[in-house]
Automatic annotation (TrEMBL):
Pfam family of the protein (one): YjdM
NCBIfam families xrefs: phnA
Species assigned in the record: Kushneria phosphatilytica
Family designation: Belongs to the YjdM family.
Protein name from the UniProt record: Alkylphosphonate utilization protein
Length: 113
């Protein structure tokens, strides 16, 4: 038998480890391991062009014309993008732009609206 803790949300004993988190397959709840001193959310501090901290669900405005690779379309200055999602990587904003579709943006080319 494993020494993994029970799920704090539903008390199921089918938990498993996923990197630095425990996961419950019964209810989908994820929580940090007890000995983990490094907070995962605070290490992902993504800031816009003005230095404001961005969070999931924010509305942003593009501050520079952005050419779309492999297309003749351009994301114009002032384009508002609602309900962003922050992701890991070089292009750290995942969003959907009206008239263009799903794309990834760099936080240095946007500002919080």
């Amino acid at each position: 038998m494993s020494a993994l803790p029970h799920c704090p949300a539903c008390n199921a004993d089918y938990t498993y480890e996923d990197g630095t988190l425990f996961v419950c397959p019964m209810c989908g709840h994820e929580w940090a391991q007890a000995g983990d001193d490094s907070p995962a959310e605070e290490s992902r501090d993504i800031r816009d062009a003005n230095g404001n901290v961005l969070i999931d669900g924010d509305t942003i405005t593009v501050v520079k014309d952005l050419k779309i690779k492999g297309s003749s379309q351009v994301v114009k200055v002032g384009t508002r993008v609602k309900n962003i999602r922050l992701v890991e990587g070089d292009h750290d904003i995942d969003c959907k732009i009206d008239g263009i579709g799903a794309m990834k943006l760099k936080s240095e080319f946007v500002r919080k609206a």
